[in-house]
Amino acid sequence: MSQNNNKLANPFDLQALTAYLSQHLDCGPAGTMPELTPIAGGFSNPTYFLKYSASADYVLRKKPAGDLLPSAHAVDREYRVMEALQNTAVPVPKMLHYCEDASLIGTPFYIMERVQGRVLHDNRLPDMSPAERGQYYAAMNATLAKLHQVDYRAVGLEGFGREGGFISRQIRLWTGQYEKSDSSVPEIEQLGQWLAANQPDEDTTTIVHGDFRLGNLMFHPEKPEVVAVLDWELSTLGHPMSDLGYNLMVWKFTDAEFHGILDQNFELCGIPSYEEYLQAYFDNRSLPNDFNPFYLAFSFFRLAVIFDGVISRGGDAADAHPGIDISQLNRIFAAIGLKVANNQI
What we know:
345 residues; Phosphorylase Kinase, domain 1; 2 domains; five-stranded antiparallel sheet; three-stranded antiparallel sheet
């Protein structure tokens, strides 16, 4: 794993951590203290490089400190799903150890291998040629298809989530989240009502990532090859089209709005058009293209509610996205969802 980082004072006792880890992992000669480097990025669970030597070079991922919602920041679930996917076609880092004892570093944590590669946060891939852009988007598409083809029972993930009824539960969940805020956004309310009244009958269950996008993939240092899918915090058993709808959202808004690609010239830039990318997913799964735009509208509803919460709490998302006015993104994303629902885009 290779990303921009900044060294800070150690946030926990490395001596106690090393004494514990040495019972489970190679931590070098006795007395060796690691180099701990926080990984910068959009991770909600604090993540660090933990390096003892060239051969003992790890990544530590932990829950944040403080009071948390019971189901939030579930590093145990992240560890479980990635461990289950180790021997599948889905590339994930090797899971090495999980510790539920919060006394060591303040919260439960896990250790995984450090994968060498690149995380590409700009959906436009500005430093690449048109041919390269197409190859990277194709690799992302193929990886999502591979995830949805995994037999979750065969890899021991039966019970990782409830089978069936996923979209109904999600609509109730996000509607409830919106109702907890103090805001009043007619677009969110209208979209939520439309979703509740127009739920599809199909009820497929697969592993879903929950946040599948370019910035959560690690690519080979030199090639358009996904070497690791990252950030599984929202993973569960659910409907695969919810992942696909989420992945497709960037085609429906611009870079200035929130890192979208709607304003790209797809004939020239090399990035596949919305229709091409959508068709490629079904080709990769050898299935007929029967995508229901409902799932795209649902993804915009979910994103609108997330930003409504950020805005209501006065969150610091603006700091992570300089140059973008997040204050209207709740309305903007809900309005886009309504256009999808009404077949206007």
